[in-house]
Amino acid sequence: MDDHCLPSLPAQQGLTLVELLLAIAILGILAALGPPSFTQLMAGSRLNAVESDLLSLLASARSSALMRNQRVTLCRSTDGLQCAGTARQGEQRWKGALLFVDLDQNSVVGNDETVFYVANFHTAATILWNRGDSLVYQPDGTALGGSNGTFRVQVPNSDQEQHVVVSLIGRVRSARVAPIP
Fold it and tell me: Strand, helix or coil at 23?
């Protein structure tokens, strides 16, 4: 038989032991580096979602005051039925909020006042408002208070926080802030 007619055998059928060990080492390194990056990615996504919810809520509160031509209160709530307090100062943690027309201007949901929006924030998020238990928008869209107020949004596994600032004219801006080392 002629040597030229024989089928040629493949040069290599698999991996050598060295190549296999190298591939396993690379996979091990990638697996070790992956979870922290994924955790940070998820925390950043959660931070963005909570910030977006808060911005929408503030826009709704301001536009409701303008459309209704009435004073609208956004207050901190723990049960979704009543405001959690009436403090005008101090930093408070908000787990939820109520939005309502405050007819008697006391930042409390009265019998003749109807809550038209209930917000429940993500349980893992921490939302702190430095102006007490409520934010009040006037019929002209301005916010009550002696100065700008800031919501600070934090989530677990993130070294950053989001600041949502409400100016006295009622406008809202946000910025991501890295912690001070």
Answer: helix
Share of the chain above pLDDT 70, in %: 88
Structure tokens at 180: 């001070």
- pTM, two decimals, is 0.75
Q: Mark 143-174 as b/e (b = at least 16 C-beta within 10 Å).
A: bbbeeebbbbbbbeebeebbebebeeebebeb
User: pLDDT at residue 50 above 70?
Assistant: yes
pLDDT of 157 above 90? no
The half-sphere exposure of 30 on its side-chain side, counting CA atoms within 13 A, is: 6
Distance CA 181, CA 176 (A): 15
The structural domains of the chain, ordered by start, are 17-177 (3.55.40.10)
Q: Is the pLDDT of residue 57 over 90?
A: yes
- Give bridge partners of residue 78 from the DSSP assignment: none
Which 3 state secondary structure label does DSSP give 85?
coil
| 3-class state of residue 119 by DSSP | strand
pLDDT at 1 > cutoff 60: no
pLDDT tens digits, 143-153: 987 778 999 99
Order of all β-strands in the sheet with 134-137: 115-120, 96-101, 72-76, 134-137
DSSP strand pairing (134-137 vs 115-120): unpaired
